[in-house]
Structures are given as structure tokens and as C-alpha cells.
Specification:
This protein has 217 residues and is an alpha/beta fold. The protein has seven helices and nine strands; from the N terminus they run E-H-E-H-E-H-H-E-H-E-H-E-E-H-E-E. It has two domains: 117 residues, Formyl transferase, N-terminal domain (Rossmann fold, 3-Layer(aba) Sandwich); 95 residues, Formyl transferase, N-terminal domain (Rossmann fold, 3-Layer(aba) Sandwich). It is an enzyme of class 2 (transferase).
């Protein structure tokens, strides 16, 4: 059995992910952590008996320095961010997290963090990578005028933005009257499907990273 840590933004996808995996004997939801100010996913996790808490970078800055983020110099921010990531890794190690799954988690993970969880960090992204990485990938796709969009689940191995080896992808057609909201709704369904499947494959030790490729055994 793997202990699953879910790193969320607001956690809108967490309920569906939980429903898809809750009865899987190979997976235990160990902890849910959000870096946002408010996250309904934290309440959902607690209501379902999962440890959950906020761990905000801006709070970390203020706790350590007494300053807001806009008051800090670039060098101070970098050092504090490394310290924040180290503390986050400590929290996950204490809980023996075997897989860290990021959904809506906006912070780029530093290499020092990733070295402590080699091949154990996944992210779900709302585009067909390597196209449209970064923020609001589905909006980028719509604005660009492509005919299909989609979602990707990938490993996170370094600090590159959405650059890790791809595990699963699935496309959806963009209709002529598509809006950002309607496309986002389509992709929510795809993300839930791909995310749960990727976690199940990992739990069964069926994923093997070979350079840029992920082989499903």
C-alpha cells in the first residue's frame, strides 16, 4: 500500500479523486495540504477522516521575517523558499508519503525537494503537454485557436514548468462555440480520469521512467 499525499490549490478536484480511489486497497489518502488562503478541499479531507492543513508560502515569509512578500529582496525570497520547501518535504517524510500528487498546486517544486522524492511526484495539467504549459493551459489553447485540448499527468523530476516525463494524456474536441468555462468543465472530467488512473498504476508499480518516456508495464 502506498501513502498518498495530495497537494492542492483550492481542491476542487479532490472529492472526485477521493471517490475514485477510496476503496482501492493499494492506496491510502495520508494527507492533504494546500498553499492557498482558502481551500474547500481541506474541509472535505477533514470530513472524510484525512489529515489536512494549510501550508502557505506567504505565511512562511512573514513568520520567519516579520515582513510581507513585497517587502523582501529577491535573495531573501529565494532562501526562504528553499527553507519552506525543505520544511514541506520534512512534513511529507514524517508521514511516509510514497506518492505526492499535485492538483491545482501552483508552486514550482525546487530540486532539493524533488531529490528527496525521486520519481514520486506527479502533477496533472490542463493541456496536452508540451503545448501550453504554465498557468491556465486550457485558456491558452482556446486563445491559440487549436481544435483539440486535453489534460496530461506527468512526473515532476526538476524545476522545469510542466516538463516532466508524460504518464497519461487525453484529448477533447474544442467546439466552435466553446468558452473557457465549458472547456474547463470538459477537462475536469478528463483530469479526474487520468489522475486516478495514474495513481493506480503507480500503486501497482507499473510505471517505469526511461529518460523522457514513461513505460506502462
Amino acid at each position: 500500500m502506498i501513502k498518498l499525499a495530495v497537494l492542492i490549490g483550492r481542491g476542487s478536484r479532490l472529492p472526485n479523486l477521493y471517490q475514485k480511489l477510496r476503496n482501492n486497497p493499494d492506496i491510502k489518502f495520508e494527507v492533504v495540504i494546500s498553499h492557498k488562503k482558502e481551500a474547500p478541499g481541506i474541509d472535505f479531507a477533514k470530513e472524510n477522516g484525512i489529515e489536512a492543513f494549510y501550508f502557505r508560502l506567504t505565511d512562511w515569509y512573514r513568520e520567519k521575517t516579520g515582513k510581507g512578500i513585497t517587502e523582501l529582496l529577491a535573495g531573501e525570497k529565494h532562501a526562504l523558499r528553499k527553507s519552506y520547501m525543505s520544511s514541506l518535504a520534512d512534513q511529507l517524510k514524517e508521514r511516509d508519503a510514497g506518492l505526492i500528487f499535485m492538483t491545482g498546486w501552483d508552486l514550482i517544486m525546487l530540486n532539493d525537494f524533488l531529490m528527496r522524492f525521486p520519481g514520486q511526484v506527479m502533477n496533472v495539467h490542463p493541456s496536452i503537454l508540451p503545448s501550453f504549459p504554465g498557468e491556465n493551459g486550457w485558456v491558452q489553447a482556446l486563445d491559440y485557436g487549436v481544435k483539440v485540448a486535453g489534460a496530461t499527468v506527468h512526473f515532476v523530476l526538476d524545476e522545469g514548468m510542466d516538463t516532466g516525463p508524460i504518464i497519461l494524456q487525453k484529448c477533447v474536441e474544442i467546439e466552435e462555440n466553446e468558452t473557457a468555462d465549458s472547456l474547463r468543465q470538459k477537462l475536469n472530467i478528463v483530469e479526474d480520469e487520468l489522475g486516478s488512473k495514474a495513481i493506480e498504476l503507480f500503486a501497482k508499480d507499473r510505471l517505469q521512467i526511461q529518460g523522457r518516456r514513461v513505460v506502462i508495464k
